[in-house]
UniProtKB/TrEMBL annotation, chain A:
Family, as annotated: Belongs to the SEDS family. MrdB/RodA subfamily.
Gene source species: Peiella sedimenti
The entry's keywords: Cell inner membrane, Cell membrane, Cell shape, Cell wall biogenesis/degradation, Glycosyltransferase, Membrane, Peptidoglycan synthesis, Transferase, Transmembrane, Transmembrane helix
Function summary: Peptidoglycan polymerase that is essential for cell wall elongation.
Pfam families for this protein: FTSW_RODA_SPOVE (PF01098)
Keyword Membrane: yes
Gene name in the database record: rodA
Main localization of the protein described in the UniProt heading: membrane
Keyword Membrane assigned: yes
HAMAP family with a match to the protein in the record: PGT_RodA
Membrane topology: Multi-pass membrane protein
Protein name: Peptidoglycan glycosyltransferase MrdB
Broadest EC class assigned to this enzyme: transferase
UniProtKB/TrEMBL annotation, chain B:
Penicillin-binding protein dimerisation domain ranges (all copies): 66-243
Molecular function via GO: serine-type D-Ala-D-Ala carboxypeptidase activity
Pfam families (alphabetical): PBP_dimer, Transpeptidase
Organism for this UniProt entry: Peiella sedimenti
Protein name from the UniProt record: Penicillin-binding protein 2
Gene: mrdA
Keyword Membrane among record annotations: yes
Localization of this protein: Cell membrane; Membrane
């Protein structure tokens, strides 16, 4: 394929050309993490595909195909769907507020009859798409410092507040940080960035006392003094640290992690899967997993940087930021550096909802790569 | 970057440039974050790895104590007297039950009696830590155990397991000698504290028992063994998922204790008591081995192993015949006429000619009161041999003060009275051997009477085994053994070996301080009691074992003072007002091997009718168990071919052995005078 052929109008919309443009490197890295996850789930189930590892692989296969298909969807479709998805997510969040199903003290689910849905997951993508679209139409000056910034700020604030009210502090913070990251890469003035960081630092103690729920406060307390309550809230962190630390440099061996095999490690298949990796494969294994995550982030940001349209850049960066935040928050949480907020390790942890969100996100990132030369006009994105 | 011309608006380029710089920063921040995580990983996994490894194995492994199998207690032939038997129990772990009430409902259908104790079970289960198994029922039958196991899948949190429980196969026969084991109580734990030792954690193990009485208590340390440790792998709920064989230490079983007892003799000895209370001791006179030592009535020590119900304990404690009391070594009785051998030896020692005769007229007047012989009409002229044979009180009344109470006491002590013995059981009474010194000390110590002086009148009571004299069955057996042995001051031995180490024999002792001739006179008297047709126990002392004959002495001891003119009242009227019956014997009389001493507390009739036949039955078992004796019995006797009754022991104690009860009961060996025993105010004369 020559460059001249690709410059022919319409050539890039042909399916074989698009397929050739798929980012197999990113897809491969994602698959590596998912396969490591399946292996760990097999191990913590005592060497059994039941109940987690098999499901994990099946789901991943389905979502992998879905990611590839989404990667071929014209970026103009994504652009057009940005506000509708965001709007729908917002409506569902309001619906949850009104008629949501309460499980374990939190109202996060909408019962659709055949399945239950967490609108906050839709919102993770919705916020990326909506902000990317808004900034696509904004000038550099508007993105840096302008009264119009109230619009993206409100777009961000609404879902953050609604999700926090469920209460789901983890997801709420994730949406907030994702939005802030997009606003940052879109070119937000350094003055606002610095002022924002400063005010967060000032407000955080007040949040602790007046906004956080009792159980959330306890988690924060435990972070700073884990030995205070080793059998209660501190148990999770203490056991996770024991699992990681006892793995040592080379690990205890695959399937031989006593902490996870003997159930000392709670939620070993979901939020606390990473300590299992660290226990069974040691520092080497855990470090390599972090390196793969780093490579995924690098590959995705590379895609963001080669896009010719601003929507694509921001969407890819936004998805990457969400993904990186997942990894960093979960890693910090299981190693006792952050409070337990219920954020899983993406693709490694068992759980269909988060995997779907992440894989759709990567579908979007890959679509940005495939359509990186697309020129998107400003204004309503009609095809 | 792009191979194609893009839109060259400055604003668009500024947006792109800013985006690339910021994205680079975003990527850098992510890398920094990942680096921070890696640093933390390194800190935990490399720097603190050792510390967390320890914590991890503390999680993973538990060290569980396994109680050692308690040493067995066996008789001289290796018959198990105290062993361990498997016991099935059901335990409930609260943490693993879905719902305790529901689980107990189901369990109640399998084991109906748990329903009755449901309230206390719930209390116990709730009192224990969540994941600790609490026994709810022990000693399940095999059917119950199987049933619980079959339904195990439907009973989460219920498990059935097997442990070892102490078991006494002979029940009451050895209860007083062996004692029993029980759960450690607060006092056991306090004992460790008092000694300043660390409390052995095995004490808290639910299956562990400590010796409470008898041999179980004395040799508790040796029987106990050393607890083992089991390094088990547990999961987060404390459930055992595996065993670390390399890290486990097997329990060291306790040492076996071999007793000198013979289970057959012991069982027969308890059996012959029937309803009566009392004690009996059988000794091998050659080496002092105690072949039987029983106290009747007895109790089942198995009841005490898992905690005796207070209702049963009350019944045992309140019964007037006191089953819990050891009447062989703890209970003391006046020896009555069985003491007359002692007095006789003292008389010989004082130089009295055994052929010297005293005419018995049925009583003896000393001072201003009359001491009566048991035979109201009197025995006529009596030498020492006849005085023993007929148990003539008058003879001893008459001569005793020529020996003096201190000489009698000295002889009594060298025959074994007034001592406790190192036989490995606590709770022995020394009894009382009165002497002038004893009375002085006793009076001072207790203010029993005002006068600390001994008066010769008191010696008369002591001479016939009454007064303050108090002995136990073991001492009587020791006395009989020493008389029968004739040379050695035989010491009793109850524990043959502990953990294979032999204990010193009772024969390695000094000689008796009596001359052979004197001992022969006394022994011939005892032979005549049993074998002379006019002897007091002739009828009841015939063994029927060929030419093996028994020598013995009857005794009937007052258990209370009879006031002047007081009638004894109808016999059998009130149990605790009757006299005690005693009999001591050894056999064969020509080449002695075994000694038997038997006391019946508050016997219905007296020494010859109640005690002698029982002692004879016990003696027969002892003789028949001895291969030498058996061959002697079974050997056809050449000169008189009428060796009848070679065979087995006629198991007909009771009815058959006391056939003409009417004539028998008229001649009990009444010892004491019907007067107050020895009032000291009448003494000085």
């Amino acid at each position: 394929m020559t460059a001249s052929a690709l410059t022919r109008p319409g050539e890039r919309d042909r399916l074989p050309v698009k397929i050739a443009q798929l980012d197999w490197r990113l897809a491969g890295l994602v698959a590596v993490i998912a396969l490591v996850g399946a292996a760990m789930l097999w191990s913590v189930a005592g060497g059994s595909w039941e109940p987690w590892a098999g499901n994990h692989l099946t789901r991943f296969s389905v979502f992998f195909v879905m990611m590839m298909v989404l990667a071929l969807v014209d970026l103009r479709w994504w652009y057009a769907m940005a506000y509708p998805v965001y709007g729908a997510g917002l409506l569902l969040l309001v619906a949850v507020e009104l008629v949501g199903e309460t499980r374990m003290g939190a109202t996060r689910w909408l019962d659709l009859g055949f399945t239950s849905l967490q609108p906050s997951e839709i919102m993770k993508l919705g916020i990326v798409l909506a902000l990317a679209r808004w900034y696509h139409g904004a000038s550099a000056q508007e993105a840096r410092f302008h009264w119009k910034l109230i619009v993206p700020a409100l777009m961000l604030a609404l879902p953050v507040v609604l999700v926090a009210h469920q209460p789901d502090l983890g997801t709420s913070l994730l949406i907030l940080f994702t939005g802030v990251a997009i606003m940052f890469v879109a070119g937000l003035s350094w003055k606002i960035v610095v002022a924002g960081i400063g005010s967060v630092l000032a407000i955080a103690p007040m949040m602790y006392f007046f906004v956080l729920h009792e159980y959330q406060r306890r988690r924060v307390d435990v972070l700073f003094n884990p030995e205070a309550d080793p059998s209660g809230s501190g148990y999770h962190i203490a056991q996770a640290k024991i699992a990681i630390g006892s793995g040592g440099f080379l690990g205890k061996g695959f399937g031989l992690g006593s902490q996870s095999q003997l159930n000392f490690l709670p939620e070993k298949h979901t939020d606390f899967i990473f300590p299992t990796v660290a226990e069974e494969f040691g520092f080497i294994g855990a470090f390599l997993v972090l390196v793969v995550y780093g490579l995924i982030v690098a590959a995705a940001l590379r895609i963001a940087s080669v896009s010719h349209n601003h929507f694509g850049r921001l969407a890819a960066a936004g998805v990457t930021a969400t993904f990186a935040l997942y990894v960093l928050i979960n890693g910090a949480m299981v190693m006792g550096l952050a409070p337990v907020v219920g954020v899983p390790m993406p693709l490694l942890s068992y759980g269909g909802t988060v995997m779907m969100t992440v894989m759709i996100g990567f579908g979007l990132v890959m679509a940005v790569k495939v359509h990186r030369y697309l020129e998107l006009p400003k204004g309503p994105g009609l095809l | 970057m792009s191979s194609e011309p893009s839109i060259f608006f400055s604003d668009v380029n500024e947006r792109q440039g800013s985006f690339l710089r910021r994205t680079f920063l975003l990527g850098g921040a992510t890398v920094l974050g990942l680096a921070a995580l890696s640093t933390r990983l390194g800190q935990l996994q490399i720097v603190q790895a050792r510390e967390y490894s320890t914590l991890s194995s503390n999680n993973q492994f538990n060290f569980r104590l396994t109680p050692p199998p308690r040493g067995r207690i066996v008789d001289r032939n290796g018959v198990t007297l105290a062993g361990n038997r498997p016991s099935f129990r059901v335990l409930v772990v609260r943490d693993e039950t879905r719902d305790l009430d529901e689980t107990l409902d189901l369990l109640g259908r399998l084991l109906p009696d748990t329903l009755e104790r449901r309230r206390s079970i719930i209390r116990e289960v709730n009192a224990a830590p969540r994941f600790v198994p609490v026994p709810v029922k022990s000693d399940l039958s095999w059917e119950e155990f199987a049933r619980v196991n079959v339904y195990a899948p439907e009973l989460p949190g219920v498990m059935a397991d097997m442990n070892e429980a102490r078991f006494y196969p002979f029940g009451g026969a050895f209860a007083h000698v062996i004692g029993y084991v029980a759960k450690p109580n607060d006092r056991d734990i306090q004992a460790y504290r008092d000694r300043g030792e660390e409390i052995d954690p095995i004490l808290y193990h639910p299956g562990f028992r400590v010796g409470r009485q008898g041999v179980e208590r004395t040799f508790d340390e040796q029987l106990r063994g050393e607890p083992g440790g089991q390094r088990v792998e547990v999961d987060a709920r404390g459930r055992v998922v595996g065993e670390d064989v390399g890290g486990s230490r097997p329990a060291v079983p306790g040492q076996d204790v071999v007793l000198t007892l013979d289970a057959d003799i012991q069982n027969r000895a308890l059996e012959v008591f029937g309803e009566e209370a009392g004690g009996a001791v059988v000794m091998d006179i050659r080496n002092g081995d105690v072949l039987a030592m029983v106290s009747a009535p007895s109790f089942d020590p198995n009841l005490f192993v898992s905690g005796v119900p207070s209702r049963i304990y009350r019944a045992l404690a309140d019964y007037e015949r006191k089953p819990l009391l050891d009447k062989a070594i703890y209970g003391t009785f006046p020896p009555g006429s069985t003491f007359k051998m002692t007095t006789a030896l003292a008389l010989l020692d004082a130089g009295i000619d055994p052929s010297e005769r005293v005419v018995c007229t049925g009583g003896y007047r000393y001072g201003n009161r009359t001491f009566r012989c048991w035979k109201a009409g009197g025995h006529g002229p009596q030498d020492m041999h006849n005085a023993i044979k007929n148990s003539c009180d008058t003879y001893f009344y008459h001569l005793c003060n020529r020996a003096g109470v201190d000489r009698i006491a000295r002889v009594a002590e060298s025959l074994g009275f007034g001592h406790t013995y190192e036989i490995g059981i606590a709770g022995q009474s020394a009894g009382i051997v009165p002497s002038t010194r004893w009375k002085r000390e006793y009076t001072e110590a207790t203010r029993w009477e005002d006068d600390p002086n001994w008066y010769p009148g008191e010696t008369l009571s002591v001479a016939i085994g009454q007064g303050a004299l108090a002995v136990n069955a073991l001492q009587l057996a020791v006395m009989t053994s020493r008389l029968a042995n004739g040379r050695k001051a035989i010491m009793p031995r109850l524990v043959k070996s502990v953990g294979g180490v032999e204990r010193p024999s009772g024969a390695a002792v000094p000689d008796l301080p009596f001359s052979r001739e004197h001992l022969d006179i006394v022994r011939n008297g005892m032979a005549a009691v049993a074998n002379d047709v006019t002897g007091t126990a002739y009828r009841n002392s015939q063994l029927g074992l060929g030419d093996i004959l028994m020598a013995g002495k009857t005794g009937t001891a007052q258990s209370r003072d009879y006031r002047a003119g007081e009638s004894r009242g109808p016999r059998n009227a009130i149990w605790n007002r009757r006299d005690h019956a005693l009999f001591v014997a050894f056999a064969p009389h020509d080449a002695p091997r075994y000694a038997v001493a038997l006391i019946i507390q508050h016997a219905p009739v007296g020494g010859s009718a109640d005690a002698a036949p029982r002692a004879r039955e016990i003696m027969k078992v002892a003789l028949l168990k001895d291969p030498d004796m058996r061959s002697r019995i079974e050997r056809p006797l050449p000169p008189p071919p009428a060796a009848e009754a070679t065979g087995e022991e006629p198991d007909n104690f009771g009815a058959a052995s006391t056939p003409p009860a009417a004539t028998q009961s008229a001649a009990p060996a009444q010892t004491a005078a019907p007067q107050p025993a020895a009032p000291s105010q009448e003494g000085p004369q």
